[in-house]
Amino acid sequence: MCAAAVIHKIKIDRFRGIENLDWNPAPGMNVILGGGDVGKSTVLEAIALLLNPSNARVLSESDYWQRKTEDEFVIQVVISLPYSTEISQQAKFVWPWEWNGTEAIPPVAAAGDDDIPSPAQPVYCLQVRGTAELEISWEILQPNGDVDILSSAVRRKIGVLRLSGEERNDRDLRLVYGSALDRLLSDKGLRARIGQHVSSIDLHDKLSDDAKKAIEKLDTSLKAESLPNKLELGLTSSQGLSIGALIGLLAEREGGVVLPLASWGAGTRRMATLQIAAESEAETRITVIDEIERGLEPYRVRKLVKSIEAEPTQSFVTTHSAVAIGSADGGHLWYLDQAHNIGALPRNKIAAQQDRDPETFLSRLSIIAEGPTEIGFVTYLLERAIDGNFLDQGVRVCNGQGNPATLDLLEAMASGGLMFGGFVDDEGTSAGRWITLKATMGTMLFQWGAGSTEKSIIVEIPDDELEKLITEVEADVRAERCLTLADRLGIADRSFDAIKTEAADLRALIIAAATGSNEGAAENGVAKTWKKHGRRWFKSVAGGKELATLMFALGAWPSLRPQILPFLNAVRNALGQPELEDLPHE
Questions:
Q1: What is the pLDDT of residues 129-143, one digit of tens each?
Q2: Which residues fall within 8 angstroms of residue 51, CB to CB, at 6 or more apart?
Q3: How far apart are CA 12 and CA 190, in angstroms?
Q4: 283 and 43 in contact (C-beta within 8 Å)?
């Protein structure tokens, strides 16, 4: 058997807001991202319910898909379990399944094994059902089709540490069956000793005189009716309530004040709970944490994420914190969309963006722009295309850090199911990958027909307006741009008149300088200098915005509108806004 409990597959049908969900999570830390109300917390609740260590759980109509109680909900997992769970020591033998990498399949006995199968990777199928009568049933599915009871004892042995987004969540800080504190102490006789001690207290003697008289009067009435009498107060129990639930950890604050640990701040309670669980050294524990950042300062969020990543057990976490995402470089990121499809965000493709700009994966709509020029260009367009402030509506323009890195990131986001856009150059590379991505993203991916943003705009500026790229700018900017053109022409005179005289093709010369092209450079040192020319033109966020204003001011927009407007309308559609016939730009 395995050394730790690992859930390999989760299947949820008709539970709360999720009609159907199939997911193969990874070992270790799984971070679930997604928009509001898509079901992230429900996934965690499903895992916690399946592994609930107690049978004292009451269902309501809200636990069923669309509140249809006539349709049972089912939560099923395929899980590897170590010997310590005693799954194979039940009254009825539990047969393992074979894990083939994606599914649990019935094992096949090898020749000469007396027809006894021995799976290479044994797993077990466990499920919990909510019946039409609002009853709950925990079950083990056998490979031969039999269904047996999944006992609370086995569920307690597996163990689930659940930290929800609720304001108060102190279950694991009290001596509740299956709690972190209960697993740490492992003292089965403690509750009985507590009960014996409390029962020895003469509660009747603590009553006021009036209360004693009331009891005596009731006793007389019961005796007269031949009912049980000789009443006194004492310790009793009720279904679902354990004496241990009244026992919790106390801790001393500054000043000598002792308070229940459950009364401390939300972040402190969470950190303490996880520490208790870690001290229990339970290799089987499954951890589920909703909104991991809740109640914690950024430095403690980082510390908590790192401590969970370092645990040998499997965990499931949701977050809306950029700090948490940026810290989870050892975890596995997943994205859950509105249709309850969950997809992986491969670390090898998103690592740079995760470290540099984790908010990319938290925005309502992220637009990945290839570089600073595209960021400025797209920002200017969105300011005019979107009703209201696009930032307030959850749109974020992100830096993709170049064409190859942007392609990797867009592909990863597409596989993860994120709603996103892209704005990129055409560098003539990876044509097949771009075509495939375009088929997935549609008009949410904008790519120039050929070349870069700078070239695509400058090409469309009319001849009689072209000089204004240089002549109608501030004096220092004009001087720098003339310098780049004169360098390329190899002339000492940096005046614009001299440049016009020497340039065989002024437009091509401007495009080469604005894009930082080093084609035709005779020496390596010259090539490096030419490469930097683009910074003196539009290769910056401010330069991208300037280029967008010039597109309109110098008459390039009418010819570029058929290319750009569909992308802007796709963004408007994603925000629920009607399409535009043209872009206001006065």
A1: 999 999 999 999 999
A2: 155, 158, 159, 160, 286
A3: 37
A4: no
Confidence (pTM): 0.76
For the four alpha carbons of 35, 41, 46 and 51, in that order, the dihedral sign comes to positive
pLDDT tens per residue across span 223-250:
887 777 777 776 665 555 566 666 666 7
| Selection from 144, 16, 20, 140 nearest residue 86 by Cα | 140
Return the domain boundaries, the chain. 190-245, 352-455+561-574, 461-555
What is the DSSP code string of 248-266? B-EEE-TTS-EEEGGGS-H
Q: Are 441 and 570 in contact (CB under 8 A)?
A: no
DSSP summary character for residue 545: H
Compute the C-alpha angle 150/155/158, nearest 5°: 130
Q: How far apart are CA 133 and CA 138, in angstroms?
A: 15
Predicted confidence at residue 176, as pLDDT, reads 67
Query: Which residues on adjacent β-strands are paired with residue 22?
Result: 11
Helix (H) or strand (E) holding 104: strand 104-105
Angle between helices 431-441 and 403-416 (to 10 degrees): 40
Which residues contact residue 403 at a Cβ distance below 8 angstroms, ignoring those fewer than 6 apart? 370, 424, 425, 427, 429
Which H or E element spans position 322?
helix 322-327
Burial class (CB in 10 A: 0-12, 13-18, 19+), 249: middle
**Which fold would CATH assign to domain 352-455+561-574?**
Rossmann fold (3.40.50)
Distance CA 153, CA 162 (A): 18
What is the per-residue pLDDT across 497-546, written as a single tens digit (0 to 9) for each? Answer: 999 999 999 999 999 999 999 888 878 788 999 999 999 999 999 999 99
Contacts of 585 (CB under 8 A, 6+ apart): 384, 552, 557
pLDDT digits (tens, 9 = 90+) for 107-122: 887 655 566 677 889 9
Q: And the tokens for 545?
A: 């915005």
Do the bridges between strand 136-141 and strand 122-130 make them parallel or antiparallel, or are there none, so unpaired?
A: antiparallel
Cα 67 to Cα 50: distance, rounded to the nearest angstrom: 20
